User: What shape does this take?
Amino acid sequence: MGDAEGQGSLERPVIFLDENHCGNRHLHAALDAFGIRYEKHLDHFPRGIEDTVWIPVVAVKGWVLLTSDARIRYNSLEKNAVRNNNLRMFYFTRNDIGGAEMGAVLSKALPKIVSLCGTETPPFAASINRAGEVNIRDNFRT
Assistant: This one.
């Protein structure tokens, strides 16, 4: 499961689906098929809560964020929340694809996501493109 302090490697990540994705049954199905446990935003936080409030909680629990909000990498308060709490973050590069396609993309990306969680020291942000390719984009160290 998650590492206790949000540091080091994860043998098997717990994926946190942000508010925009927590109801996507296609993502749930992809995670279930791969045997990945997941947590849904609305099971833990109210709608519309500021990212700077929930990011530290998710990171401290050792959960891995799945989002389409790449802007987190650029908003200084959110970026600091990621950096200061050692969050592992994966984001879809396109937010204009439907739920079924997003589930298929995640299915292709999951092996690499699991691998990076086991090898890459947090914090980091990695993109997931439409082909399911995953690439580290930011380590928040600069």
